[in-house]
Amino acid sequence: METIIYKADVSGVRIDKWLTGQIDSWSRSYVQQLIGNGHIRVNEQEIKSNYKLQSGDEIAVSEPEAEELDAEAEEMNLDIRYEDEDLLVVNKPRGMVVHPAPGHVSGTLVNGLMAHCTDLSGINGVMRPGIVHRIDKDTSGLLVVAKNDSAHESLVEQMKAKTTKRRYEAIVVGEINHDKGTIDAPIGRDPEDRQKMTVTEKNARNAVTHFQVIDRFPNYTHVMLELETGRTHQIRVHFKYIGYPIVGDPKYGPRKRHVFPIEGQALHAGMLGFIHPRSGEELIVEAKPPEDFNACLEELHRMKH
C-alpha cells in the first residue's frame, strides 16, 4: 500500500471536498469511505470527513490496492461524431471521467461506450476497453476509441510518431502579447504534490505545445493550441508555467478566481485528425466548444465593450 503525502494550501475547507478536487478520479463518497477506514490521516491523526483543513496540514493518504473492478454497461446519450467498424470519435462532456477507477466505477465514458457497442479493443484491459488516449475529467472534447486491437495499435503508433493532429481552445488568465508561440518544456511529476505535474528536468519527458491567439480581452486571452506531444495535464501545466493559467482550472489555476459560468477549466479538444487504420485516408473530426465555454467568451466580450 503506497502512502502519498499532501500539504493543504487552504484553510476552512472540508477535507473530503478538498481531496476530491485534487484527484480527478475520486468521488466524495470514496474519500469518505477511505477516511472511515482509517486510510487518510491529518498530522498523523485519524479524522472525520467533516474535518476542516488548516493551511500547512500534512495529509497522508494510504489507498488500499485496487481490486479488479468489473466495468458495467450503462445507457448514455453519447455525442458520437464519427463511427465505423474500426473506431469511433466521441465528444466527451466536461465533468465526465474517461474510465472507471476506485471510487468512480460508474458514470464514466467507458460505461457508456460498453452499452453503445460490444466490440471494443482489449489492449488496455477490462477497465479501459478501446481507450487510446485520455482527456481530463474537466476538459471537454474529442476522443478516438478503437473497436479492435489492430486499429488500437495503429492509432497508438500514430500518436507516438506525432502524426496525429490535436487542436484545443482555451481561455487563459492574462493578456498574451505574442500572436503565436511554442512552449517547449519537459514535464514530470511534481515532487511537492504527487497528484500534480510540473515543468522539471528531473524524471521528465519532453513536451511541446504550440499556441496562437484568437482574441484578447482585459486580463484574459482566447487561444488555439496544438499538441505535438501528449503528456498528462500538458496544456494546463505549460500555461501555468508561462504565467497564463487556464480559467477555472482547480488544480493549476490562480487561487483568486474570477467567477465564470463554468465548472472546471475552460479547455476544449475541438479537432482530432489521424490516418484511418483501415482505409489509409486522413480523417478529421471537429466539435465546437460547449455552451459553458461560449458563455465565458460572451462574458469577456461584455467586459471588452
From TrEMBL:
It catalyses: a uridine in RNA = a pseudouridine in RNA. InterPro entries: PsdUridine_synth_cat_dom_sf (IPR020103), PsdUridine_synth_RluA-like_CS (IPR006224), PsdUridine_synth_RluC/D (IPR006225), PsdUridine_synth_RsuA/RluA (IPR006145), RluA_PseudoU_synthase (IPR050188), S4_RNA-bd (IPR002942), S4_RNA-bd_sf (IPR036986). It comes from the Bacteria. CDD domains: PseudoU_synth_RluA_like, S4. Its EC number is 5.4.99.-. NCBIfam families: rluA_subfam (TIGR00005). The keyword Translocase does not apply. Gene3D superfamilies: Pseudouridine synthase (3.30.2350.10), RNA-binding S4 domain (3.10.290.10). Residues 13-70 form the RNA-binding S4 domain. Keywords: Isomerase, RNA-binding. The active site is at D136. GO terms for biological process: enzyme-directed rRNA pseudouridine synthesis. One of its GO terms (molecular function) is rRNA pseudouridine synthase activity. Responsible for synthesis of pseudouridine from uracil. It is an enzyme of class 5 (isomerase). This is Pseudouridine synthase. Belongs to the pseudouridine synthase RluA family.
